[in-house]
Amino acid sequence: MSQSPHLDQEVAPACDDVASSLSRQAVCPTGKSLESVAGILHWDPRSESVQRDQIASYDAMRQSCPLAQSPYGYTTVFGHADALRVIEDHETFSSAVSRYPSVPNGMDPPGHTPFRQLIEPYFNQAHMDAFEPDCRRIAAELVAALPRQASVELISEFAQIFALRIQCAWLGWPAALHEPLRLWTLKNQAATLSRDREAQEHVAQEFDQYIKDLLAARREAGAAAPDDITTHLLHNDSLGRPLTEEEITSILRNWTVGELGTIAASVGILAHYLAVHPDIQQHLRDNPADLPAAIDEILRIHAPLIMNRRLTTREVELAGHTLPAGTRMAVLWASANRDEAVFGDPDEFRLDRDPALNLLYGAGVHVCPGAPLARLELLAIMEALLSGTGWLALSTGQPPVKAIYPGSGFASLHVTVEPERPPT
Ligand code: HEM
Prior knowledge:
Layout: E1 24-27, E2 33-37, E3 40-42, H1 48-52, H2 54-64, E4 67-69, E5 74-77, H3 80-88, E6 93-94, H4 112-119, H5 125-144, E7 151-153, H6 154-171, H7 178-194, H8 197-221, H9 229-234, H10 245-276, H11 278-286, H12 291-301, E8 307-312, E9 316-318, E10 321-323, E11 328-332, H13 333-336, H14 340-343, H15 371-387, E12 391-394, E13 401-402, E14 410-412, E15 414-418
Parallel strand pairs: 3-4, 5-11
Antiparallel strand pairs: 1-2, 2-3, 4-5, 6-8, 7-15, 8-11, 9-10, 12-15, 13-14
Helix pairs in contact: 5-6, 5-15, 6-7, 6-10, 7-8, 8-10, 10-15, 12-15
The structure holds protoporphyrin IX containing FE (HEM).
Residues 5-6, 87, 95, 104-105, 116, 254-255, 258-259, 262-263, 266, 304-305, 308, 333, 360-362, 366, 368-370, 373-374 line the site of protoporphyrin IX containing FE.
């Protein structure tokens, strides 16, 4: 089993005695009484009050506590500068956070470097150009199939389907895998949330079996195997040797979770944003050239990926606190990207922000290699949504339901495609 960069979570370490060592009391703007350990506030990121509105809760925490400790043994980093400090110093803040191997996100340089060099070419411009027509065709088909002037639950009937179809098309996987993979994603999220190691092992093994079958079919077909990315990985010898089956499975699992979880969440967040910001929807209908910047900005405001983890390799000062070696860290993208110190009003939608400040795809040696693919896919679906519909509105009487951690975005989002912008 391995840990995906896109379904990272606060797993309680085996000897977690943080909760029992709580000492004094403090108060945070969530209105809750928070306890602190060695001066660091204590919170429960999984409490109902936080989960009711993750983004608002992280805002409240960030505004008074640069760091907070969870009962799961993690120290959460809320601010932009501190998050950057952590992710850009991979020697002090290691990504080897899991006891399970994970290629390449659970590795540190120098071991990380050759795997990173191996996967990056799959996301180069030539691959993106080759995939673009398929990507646009799938986006257009799904938009054309949306019901008109009737409510549709966009997450399960559109966003997740888009992510599944696009993932299978990109990797050369058969359509027969769409439904098993959809169910697998749900089981994987549930197992992650439950922190049930047995359930996590079980879903990981289920995924491994899909990959084993795909690889076996390609080996059997020999020269007649489809010329796709999965076959290419099987024959990739840029390490000076073929990848092991475990390495290929780990790489593909990380890509799959990136697509299925994060892209689906992004599509929901983007569609919701258009529906509740009619003037911005109108602007983007009139100025599609602004879409790339708008997509990154909307996903800065509302992160599709909540956090990733690190582990300190030595004692280190951060945000005025001394953290011992072995401290488990959670870098909260969903908070850092809304830091007032960098972005002013975090909810202000601006197309002229410095893209280098946006941590949507991370930074440092683990910066998302899939960003070119994600950007292509999100641009294709947004262009299709805007050019293929008259207007997108929230369905009346069916308010959106926010997703809970480790998910982000919306658990359900009812939207109606209208023929035109309704009069205000
Ligand atoms: C909107 C969609 C996406 C977002 C917001 C996103 C965000 C991120 C972030 C923040 C990281 C850094 C993690 C860390 O520092 O620990 C990351 C890493 C990664 N992402 Fe993505 N990602 C997206 C889509 C994708 C896609 C589509 C793929 C592949 C198909 C992908 C593959 C990866 C991999 C393999 C890593 C680990 C890289 C390494 O450790 O060197 N991502 N992603």
